[in-house]
Design goal:
This protein has 233 residues and is of the alpha+beta class. It has 2 domains: 121 residues, Jelly Rolls (Sandwich), CATH 2.60.120; 76 residues, Winged helix-like DNA-binding domain superfamily/Winged helix DNA-binding domain (Arc Repressor Mutant, subunit A). It is 27% helix and 22% strand. The chain is built from 5 helices and 11 strands; from the N terminus they run ββββββββααβααββα. The strands form 3 sheets. Strands 1-8-3-6 form a 4-stranded antiparallel beta sheet. A 4-stranded antiparallel beta sheet has the order 2-7-4-5. Strand 4 and strand 5 form a beta hairpin. Helix 2 crosses helix 4. The longest helix is centred in the middle third of the chain and has 21 residues. It is globular. It starts with 42 loop residues before the first strand and ends with a helix.
Length: 233
């Protein structure tokens, strides 16, 4: 998979106005989208697995705070291929764009999130919205993760990319010796710019080196976290 044309979004594209699509409850995966929100205060919404939160090209006037679950942020590139740009976990705030969205957001499994209206950085009546400091902190973390992702897509082997990815996921979870993945192998492959087969071989290689233990498809024990982190040097 080629990733040479993938450019991280500019900071200005993450601050501004935001709009959701395909709101669904986790009991009705195929239900029609909910009507647009009109309340100013955040509204709790539930999304079924694979439900669309918003699509690339949509105009934006909302942002989101993830309560539970994992959200995949992705862009479509040439020939129908997909590049996953980020995974959002519990507590993350996302969906800030200037004008139209440059990526799509989808629920990987059941997702609950707060949908917040956004009227620009000068809005004075924030109601129950996340605080300005919380939003700023999340935006800084978002930029840091995009920078890490850009480096990760550089000249590294599949094993190196996966080792770094697992270390980063553990760090985000606040753990050192295990990872509970919120995404499948295809999602990981599209995030790392690899094929699913390459990701599977990389998992096997790390396990043979006694660096990880694959407990299940989603649960990974990091047997030598320090050795995994050294791949990022």
């Amino acid at each position: 998979m080629t990733t040479a044309n993938i450019q991280p979004p500019k900071i200005g594209q993450m601050i501004g106005s935001v709009m959701p699509m395909g709101l669904e409850t986790d009991q009705t995966a195929n239900a029609k989208p909910s009507p647009p929100l009109i309340a100013r205060n955040p509204a709790l919404r539930h999304f079924a697995p694979n439900a669309s939160i918003y699509r690339e090209g949509d105009m934006a006037d909302r942002y989101y705070k993830l309560v539970s679950g994992t959200v995949r942020d992705s862009r479509h590139i040439s020939h129908g291929r997909r590049q996953v740009t980020e995974f959002h976990g519990s507590g993350d705030i996302f969906g800030f764009y200037n004008g139209s969205r440059i990526s799509s957001a989808d629920a990987i499994g059941p997702v609950s999130l707060l949908v917040c209206r956004w009227h620009g950085p000068h809005e004075t009546d924030m109601g129950m919205h996340p605080s300005t400091n919380e939003i700023l902190t999340q935006l800084i973390r978002h930029v840091e993760r995009l920078q890490q992702h850009a480096v990760l897509l550089g000249r590294r082997s599949a094993v190196e990319k996966l080792a770094i990815f697992l270390s980063q996921q553990a760090s985000r979870m606040g753990t050192t010796d295990w990872v509970l993945l919120g995404m499948n192998r295809l999602d990981i492959a599209d995030y790392l710019g690899l094929t699913v087969e390459s990701v599977s071989r990389a998992f096997s290689s790390l396990e043979r080196q006694d660096l990880i233990e694959i407990i299940s498809a989603r649960e990974i024990k990091l047997k030598n976290p320090a050795a995994l982190m050294r791949f990022d040097t």
